[in-house]
Specification:
The complex is a heterodimer of chains A (about 130) and B (about 140).
Chain A lengths: L5 H11 L5 H4 L2 H16 L13 H17 L7 E4 L2 E4 L5 H20 L11
Antiparallel strand pairs in A: 1-2
Helix pairs in contact in A: 1-3, 1-4, 3-4, 4-5
Chain B lengths: L4 H14 L2 E11 L9 E17 L5 H5 L8 E6 L8 E5 L8 E14 L2 E11 L10
Antiparallel strand pairs in B: 1-2, 1-4, 2-3, 3-6, 4-5, 5-6
Chain lengths: ~130, ~140
Amino acid sequence: MSLWSLGSAANQMFILIPDIPDSVSGGMLDIIDRARINIECYTGQTVGSVGIAEKYQPALLACSKKEVLSSMMMEGSDSNSLKLGPWSTKKGTGSNVSEALKSANAECQRLMNCLGFGTRMYKSNG
Amino acid sequence: MAPTLNQMREDFHNTLLENPMTIRLQYFDRTFSGADYDNAFRTQSGSDIWATGMYFPVGMREANYLAQGRTILGDSQLFLHGSVVVNEDLKIALGSPIGAGSIYSVNEKGILDWGGPDGTVYNQIFIRNLNGGSFYNEY
């Protein structure tokens, strides 16, 4: 492994998640950047958008994956399943994307916890 | 809330991404002229269009359409996004690069338009292999 940029993380996302719709893949760098900011807020450490250290990479991937899958769930019609003629598609609870989103959520939280929560010290007025 | 045309098209597009096949579409005009008044000359209209579709062989699942005469066993069927213009004067080539013997014509009454009053979500097209890769009287 080596130091990553946001673009390196985006490449990994396209390997991890097949068939990302155009409307989601177009905003991939923004999605990953938001996940990076989220990690910075949670850990209190600076991750940066270039030269991303190895220790942040798994959490960055997991949290970006969660965001991408979440956006994919919002794609298209707001229905659990759709059937029109011989074509049908299944979405919502029980679909592959929905199941993957559940595990990505848990994975993101676990890896963020591994990085540690940034402590904040305040002086009380008491 | 009922899904809109665009939402259903998005869903269909996502299905296309899972089973994509590159398809070349060539549109043709029919003209009656010259010595052969009984048969239309066909000439290509416009340039080639490339699209993504899903390809399946025709089987007994299509029994209704077999009975209606839209297709026969041995034909194939294509599913194309509703934004792709289709008609019966269409020559379809499958794959990129196009394999030998992969040129098809659209069957008569072979286009099924699946959608609603707002427009077409997708087209199901029954196609038949074109021997030699050309229409009769194609110029």
